Amino acid sequence: MEIGLLNPHVIKILTSARKEDTIIGISKRINLSYGWTNKWVNELIKEGVFKEKWRGIILQEDNKTYQKILKFIKDIKDVRFYYSVLNLFGIEYCFTKTDAVYVWTEGRYNIARMVFL
């Protein structure tokens, strides 16, 4: 795996990619231009992460490069990262109380979380 392949664009693409998808669909979900999305998807096709289909791409979940990048994403311990990628999963959500304040201030105002035993 080339080190340049591990960048924010590729992480967003792989986080939001579905088993069968299109480049334009991914581009819209991650809010990145079609040109950049196409460039990085083609790099991932060369690595074998995606397989080209007539009108779209197919995610190769058993690919070693894909597994390495997913492991890297799972090992990230930054809370800001997880709050920022929620919309890439296509899940409708609503934050309340502490989480709402954290997201609204982009992590600058972190209320201590109390643990009751």
Descriptive notes:
A 3-stranded antiparallel β-sheet has the order 1-3-2. Helix content is 50%, strand content 9%. It has 117 residues and is mainly alpha-helical. β2 and β3 form a beta hairpin. The chain folds into 2 domains: 73 residues, Winged helix-like DNA-binding domain superfamily/Winged helix DNA-binding domain (Arc Repressor Mutant, subunit A, Orthogonal Bundle), CATH 1.10.10.10; 41 residues, no CATH class. The chain starts with 7 loop residues before the first helix and ends in a 13-residue tail after the last helix.
Question: What's this entry about, in short?
Answer:
The protein has 117 residues and is mainly alpha-helical. Helix content is 50%, strand content 9%.
Strand content: 5-15%
- How many discrete structural domains? 2
* CATH topology name of the largest domain: Arc Repressor Mutant, subunit A
Task: Work out the radius of gyration.
Answer: 17 Å
Contiguous uncertain segments of 5+ residues: none
Shape: globular
Structural category is: mainly alpha
Distance between the termini: 46 Å
Which key phrases capture this entry?
117 residues; mainly alpha; Arc Repressor Mutant, subunit A; 2 domains; three-stranded antiparallel beta sheet
